[in-house]
Design goal:
Length: about 260
């Protein structure tokens, strides 16, 4: 059987290698072409054309590709378009300034492009979290969805949001004081002490509980484990997980 996951995993390194190779070769090739008409091409035009390649490399989301393009653009500009030609020596101070500015602008463009991609990815994740919460709330509000189904759906969503290995619902309060508990503020507490999840991640080979309350009463909890890998969910992710768990209270039978 064809394994899509394995295929994508193997394709990613090949794609990244191609992007990095292109990030180096395209600025070099562009400068080589511009060198044939260097008398008709201004320094500003050469710089702008090279910055376009850097933008394209940074748009791939690979910082290494963007930085390689920046270095290749600066070196190629120096080699092909500044006197003495076909040498990395720069004779004029204006050419030195143009080369340095090209590299600095290219690095800045790379970082800005990557920041934009991170913001877009963050917005997409937040939209996904909201869809999950609304879906669970809608299932509870409709009332014709079995409680076990709602619990299963929420457990899967919590697993995805927190990137844990397993999540299951347990009726009743947490009886083992060694179990860490995640509260509505996204703070994880174990034995009366807060755990710095951002720094150390969720406890591995130990349980983490998210309480399900009805008023002041704890009617159950989700029990999470992260044993196969360390996971570092953000505070936003942790708060979303607790909000998801809250949706279960109206779907399970209060005993």
């Amino acid at each position: 059987m064809f394994d899509d996951g394995a295929h994508l995993a193997s394709a990613a390194p090949r794609w990244r290698t191609a992007a990095r190779l292109g990030a180096v070769l395209l600025p070099v090739a562009t400068c080589a072409v511009l060198a044939t008409v260097r008398d008709q091409v201004t320094a500003a035009t050469g710089v702008l054309v090279l910055v376009l390649w850097v933008v394209g490399a940074a748009a791939t989301g690979d910082r290494v590709a963007g930085l390689l393009a920046a270095v290749a653009a600066g070196a190629s500009y120096d080699f092909f378009l500044t006197q003495p030609y076909l040498s990395f020596n720069v004779a004029k101070s204006d050419d030195i300034e143009a080369t340095v500015l090209l590299v600095l602008i290219s690095v800045a463009v790379t970082e800005v492009a990557l920041w934009g991609r991170r913001q877009q990815a963050g917005a997409s994740r937040r939209s996904g979290y909201l869809d999950g919460v609304l879906g669970a709330a809608r299932a509870v509000a409709e009332g014709d969805v079995p409680g076990t189904t709602v619990v299963d759906v929420v457990a899967r969503q919590i697993t995805e949001v927190l990137d844990v290995d397993s999540c299951r619902y347990v009726a009743g309060p947490v009886l083992d004081r060694r179990v860490a508990v995640l509260d509505h503020d996204g703070v994880l507490t174990r034995g009366g002490h807060a755990v710095d999840v951002d720094r150390v991640g969720l406890p591995s080979d130990e349980y983490v509980a998210i309480l399900v309350r009805s008023g002041a009463r704890t009617i159950g909890h989700f029990l999470l484990t992260a044993t196969d890998h360390m996971t570092y969910p953000s505070r936003e992710q942790r708060r979303v997980a607790v909000l998801l768990a809250d949706q279960v209270a109206g779907a399970v039978q209060v005993r």
